[in-house]
Every structure is written in structure tokens, then in C-alpha cells.
Design goal:
The protein is an alpha/beta fold and about 400 residues long. The chain has 15 helices and eight strands.
Length: about 400
């Protein structure tokens, strides 16, 4: 049939037939897709996407499936109370104890603000030419004017007797600061020998009063003591709720009678309950108020008075909570509270990271108030009994 036809012509014929069949096939495919209401280009893209998904998502799906098997099931919703109850009681702490905060690291900023700046003065010249500069460093370290004068007097005496160097300046300041603390009453908590011990906790809002009460409660609970915490801040709406969370964490009881707006009534009833039901410790929370608010300070005096009607020597401790970051303002607050209530001790919070830890020395020197505890972190165990020697060593560590 193809005799006389050249080979090139035959190739062209077959190629043309192939093109015709290809066009016919594409047209049929196009019309079939059109009848289904699908765009041919979209169909091609969809097919390619499916191929990519099959090759890439299969391993991810398997990983997610494995992760789902590994994760424990959780309740769909947890209430605030549920979260608090989930915290392990302090008295039943796990066998593996968390590391205690390194005090030297916690007080590094204070060390750099005091001794770090003094060291810089000695890099070029001898001490005698820098006494005025040292005085300036001390004045700007929140030690307080009376304390600075005491420290400078000791440095001047030392400098008259012998040529001073950095080591002698450090030793003189350390000795004088430790002397400040050694003249104070014991900073151990004073417990009642008969009946419950009553602690009244005061301070301005934001100082860490509620947090400190919670951490103190946890310490007492870990010692096996029966603790009652009285919600005496009836002025601030959220105060009771915040205190409740902390008492649940510490697994101690809170006394917060509904509808009682008189803080003195709360204090009286709480002390009465503690005495009648043989509690070991009762902690009285109070509303945070500025030291300049005389009427509210009078309310604190009243709270203190009504407790004596139940237990004559109550409260056994009146402790002020001070934010170390507030520096000299903390010292001013303490003076006014001390004038009104006769404080027996202080808790300095937020000591970790602050450069104003020198206020501890000023507080001890000017008010003769022992520092009972310092806060060096957010964990429930980060309220530490204050050691004057360890504190002084830490701020002259390097």
C-alpha cells in the first residue's frame, strides 16, 4: 500500500496521525471534565497536590499519632481551685529536693552596686584619696544617711591608723555592717508558750504581703503545725481570692467569713477560733495602705487591740513586708508603721536581682528591727530565714 512512498513521507504521516489522536484524546478528556463542572487546570493541580501530600504528610500524621499516644489524657477544663489542689502539700514534698537559691547569685546586683563600685575606685589610686568617693557610693546604695555616717566614721578611723587599701576597706565595712545586725534582738520568730501564736502581717499593696503569708504558711505546715490564715483585708475585692489560692497551695485553712467588712471583727473571730480549736499558728492578713493614710493606720491599731481581748499578749509578732526594690522609701514606710504599731520584725521581698539590698542594713541600724526573712525568688520555698553573716558575706563576695 505504501509502495512508491518515501520513508520521510511515511514518518510525517504517522506523526500526523499521532497528533490527531492526541488532540482527540485531549478534547474528550476536556469535555468529560467540563461535564463534571471541574476546571481541567484545577484538576491537574489537585492531582499534583495529592501526590505531594501523600509523600510528605504521611510521616507527620504518624508522628502526631505517636505523640497522642504518649501524652496522658487531661480534663477538658481545670478550675482555679483544681489547680491549687493539684499542688503537692509542703509536708509531703517529693524525695528529690529542689536546689536552694544561691544567695550570692541572688544578691549579685547589690554586691555590684556597693562593693563593685568601691573596687573600681581602687584601680588607679590609694584609698585615702577616695574616701569622699566611697561616701558617695554608700549614700547612693540605699543604706540610709545614719548608716552611711556610721560606716564612714569607721573608715576614717581605720585610715588614720594605717594606710588603707581595698582589702582593709572591705574588712572594715564588713565588720561594721555585721556589728549593726549583732546589736538587734533575735530574728527568730517568737512563739507563744501557751496557746496559738498570732502573727500580724502589715505593709503597703504590692510589697508581696499575700505571697509572703502563703510561703510562711507553707513553712509552718511542713513543720507539722496547724495553721489558720485570717483574710483581714476586707477593703480590696481580690484580696480574699488571692489569699485562698496561696492557702490551698500550702494546704492550710483560711478564715474568711462572708459578709464581714470590719477587719477588726475578722481578726477577733479568727483569734477566738484559733484559741478554741487548738491551732498552733494564726496569721492575720491586713489591707495594704500607705503610711500616710492616718485613718487606715488607726484601723490597724484597732485590729491589734481587739486581739488582746482574746489572747492578752497577742499579736506575738507584728511583721512588716517591704519591697527591697523601693529602697529608701521602704525605710520611710517602716518608720511610720513602727511608730503606729511597734514592729517586731520585717520581711524584705524581691531581694533577688535588686541593686537596693543595702536597705537591709539601714533598716537594722536606724530602726533596730530584726529582718526575719528575705524573698529571693517566686517559688514557695524561696522565702528564706535571714542570716546577717551570710548577707554581709554575699555583698562583699568578689
Amino acid at each position: 500500500m505504501f509502495q512508491g512512498v518515501s520513508e520521510d513521507s511515511m514518518i510525517l504521516v504517522f506523526a500526523g496521525v499521532g497528533v490527531v489522536f492526541t488532540i482527540i484524546f485531549i478534547c474528550l478528556w476536556y469535555f468529560l471534565l467540563r461535564n463534571k463542572g471541574e476546571n481541567p487546570r484545577d484538576a491537574l493541580a489537585k492531582k499534583q497536590a495529592e501526590q505531594i501530600t501523600q509523600t510528605q504528610e504521611k510521616p507527620l500524621a504518624e508522628k502526631l499519632k505517636e505523640a497522642a499516644k504518649a501524652e496522658p489524657e487531661t480534663a477538658p477544663e481545670a478550675t482555679l481551685q483544681g489547680k491549687a489542689e493539684a499542688v503537692q502539700p509542703v509536708a509531703q514534698a517529693p524525695a528529690v529536693e529542689e536546689k536552694e537559691v544561691d544567695l550570692k547569685k541572688a544578691l549579685r546586683a547589690t554586691e555590684e552596686n556597693i562593693f563593685g563600685r568601691i573596687k573600681n575606685l581602687f584601680k588607679a589610686n590609694e584609698a585615702s584619696s577616695h574616701l569622699e568617693d566611697i561616701e558617695e557610693v554608700l549614700y547612693t546604695s540605699d543604706l540610709g544617711p545614719e548608716t552611711v555616717q556610721r560606716l564612714m566614721g569607721a573608715l576614717e578611723d581605720m585610715n588614720r591608723k594605717e594606710k588603707a587599701d581595698l582589702g582593709k576597706v572591705r574588712d572594715t565595712l564588713k565588720t561594721e555592717m555585721e556589728g549593726v545586725f549583732s546589736n538587734l534582738p533575735s530574728n527568730d520568730l517568737q512563739f507563744s508558750k501557751d496557746g496559738p501564736t498570732v502573727l500580724m502581717v502589715v505593709g503597703v499593696n504590692g510589697a508581696g504581703k499575700t505571697t509572703s503569708i502563703g510561703k510562711l504558711s507553707a513553712q509552718f505546715a511542713s513543720q507539722g503545725k496547724r495553721v489558720l490564715v485570717a483574710a483581714g483585708d476586707t477593703f480590696r475585692a481580690a484580696a480574699g481570692g488571692q489569699l485562698k489560692v496561696w492557702t490551698e497551695r500550702a494546704q492550710v485553712e483560711i478564715f474568711s467569713p462572708d459578709g464581714v467588712k470590719d477587719p477588726s471583727a475578722v481578726a477577733f473571730d479568727a483569734v477566738s477560733k484559733a484559741k478554741g480549736q487548738n491551732y498552733d499558728i494564726v496569721i492575720i492578713d491586713t489591707a495594704g495602705r500607705l503610711h500616710t493614710q492616718e485613718n487606715l493606720m488607726e484601723e490597724l491599731k484597732k485590729m491589734k487591740r481587739v486581739m488582746t481581748k482574746v489572747i492578752p499578749d497577742a499579736p506575738h509578732e507584728v511583721i512588716i513586708v517591704l519591697d527591697a526594690n523601693s529602697g529608701q522609701n521602704a525605710l520611710i514606710q517602716a518608720k511610720e508603721y513602727h511608730k503606729a504599731l511597734t514592729l517586731t520584725g520585717a520581711i524584705l521581698t524581691k531581694m533577688d536581682g535588686t541593686a537596693k539590698g543595702g536597705v537591709a542594713v539601714g533598716l537594722a541600724n536606724e530602726l533596730q528591727i530584726p529582718i526575719k526573712f528575705i524573698g529571693v525568688g517566686e517559688r514557695i520555698q524561696d522565702l528564706r530565714h535571714f542570716s546577717p553573716h551570710e548577707f554581709v558575706e554575699s555583698i562583699f563576695a568578689n
